Amino acid sequence: MLSVYAKNIRGRIFKLLVLLILVFNGGSIIGQDSTFLTPSTINKNKKSSKKPKDKTAPKSWEIGGYVKYLSSVYLIHPPFNSPVLAYQNNLLHNRINFKWFINNAFTFKADLRTRLFFGEFIKLQPNYGQTILRADSLRNGYRDYLSWVILDQPGAAIHSILDRFYLQYSKGDFDLRLGRQRINWGINTIWNPNDIFNTFSFTDFDYEERSGTDALRVQYYTGVASSIEFAVKVATRWEDFTTGFLWKTNKWNYDFQFLVGLLGQDIVLGGGWAGNIKNAGFKGEFSYFLNYADTSAQRHSFTGTLSIDYLFENSGYLTVGFLYNLRGSTTINTNQLFAYQPSAKNLYPYRYSVFITYMQAIKEVVNVGATLVYSPGESHALFISPSFSYSIKDNWDLSFVGQIALNTEGKYYISPTQVFFLRFKYSF
Question: Phi/psi of residue 298, each to 5°?
């Protein structure tokens, strides 16, 4: 049953959308002549209504999205030869993407993400909906009024969020975007040290769009492959404040970028590149953080990553890379890997990591692959993720993903946690 709070939120969003429509139509509805019901006006309207519509004219709006069903099984192996714990969970996920081209300069975008969680795993987590709500607010640093819980019962929860909600102005080489948006400053494949606004975990494969942030973003394109960019995130506390400048340029057939910014109490200096070494792609990305409020040795932090990727003639795609994460550990095992929340200063639990990803396309409708991440240290942490996808039709997809965490215990590897996912996706 819908709560009164959820209904009020939906009503407010509807009123806001109506108000935006009235405003950006130049008041054409509100400012109509009060004599519009006179016979002469009606006749004029009848004549104008006879004009045929141009079917080839582009639409002023577009809408799309998808519906996904994700079934997951968690296998947890407690210590001391205890019985294996198995939990099954379900997720029904709907996304609606709406874009309105107001005129040649203004565009409005609103994307709604709604998820229904149910199953054994949810039963073990009371008030799961409120947990999601708190996480959204914690990520922003203030209460998220575009995120709300519709249902929060033992074993089931429904959560909705507008993770895109912005107005964009474009004129020539100038772009300005205000509202909830995705600011992606990363270059590399798995880890992005330059992504100070929207850090994400690569293990969260089911959220391709990634979360948005409430921000102002200004871009000016100085050339075909060069630009200057400024972004600032909305914050109510200095600890949650994020801002930065990004300069992109192209030299020697390489794309380069340079970053300077603030992340809370950290000064951020970073950069990256993307190019080719013969037929192989070569990417690099790094960020240095200096906490100006800290006088200890812990005030410094550095994260850097390198990768090489290669596309074979048989459509196989290989990526090999390395991550150095100063804030990472060399002693912990993989017990907390799935619950780990990355940040721009600490992208992965471990200090050193090597990753290999291989994907193979088969007859254009099947893709198989695997990702392996090895982190040297006391536990020699190992993460393995096999994957399989099949395109049933143009808008129907089936996929299987496994995520297996391993670490050494004595002379041998053990796997304390395995998770397996089966997903159906329908796009419209």
Answer: -80, 0
For the segment 280-300, the average pLDDT, to the nearest whole number, is: 93
Confidence of residue 55 (pLDDT cuts 50, 70, 90): low
**Neighbouring C-beta atoms of residue 357, cutoff 10 Å:** 21
- Kindly state whether residue 97 falls inside one of the protein's structural domains: yes
Residue 162 counted as domain residue: yes
The count of domains in the chain is 1
Q: How far apart are the first and last CA of the chain?
A: 27
378, 334, 410: which is closest to 77 by C-alpha? Answer: 334
Distance CA(347)–CA(353), nearest Å, equals 11
What the block records as the tokens of 209 is: 């769009």
- Domain with 148 in it: 60-171
Pair of tokens at residue 268? 């951020």
Q: Please spell the DSSP secondary structure of 366-416, one letter per residue.
A: EEEEEEEEEE-SSS-EEEEEEEEEEEEETTEEEEEEEEEEEEEETTEEEEE
Q: With beta carbons less than 8 A apart as the criterion, state whether 424 and 69 touch.
A: yes
**What integer pLDDT is reported at residue 264 of this predicted model?**
92
User: Residues with Cβ < 8 Å from 241, sequence gap 6 or more?
Assistant: 233, 235, 262, 264
Q: How confident is the model at residue 78 (pLDDT cuts 50, 70, 90)?
A: confident
Whether 66 maps to a domain, the answer reads yes
pLDDT per position as a tens digit, 88-118: 999 999 999 999 999 999 999 999 999 999 9
- Give dist(CA 303, CA 186) in Å, integer: 13
339 is a domain residue: no
Residue whose C-alpha is closest to residue 262's, from 244, 236, 240: 244
pLDDT digits (tens, 9 = 90+) for 145-158: 999 999 999 999 99
pLDDT in tens, 236-286: 888 889 999 999 999 999 999 999 999 999 999 999 999 999 999 999 999
**pTM for the whole thing?**
0.82
- Cα distance between residue 79 and residue 320, in whole Å: 33
Given a contact cutoff of 8 angstroms between Cβ atoms, the answer to whether 228 and 219 are in contact is: yes
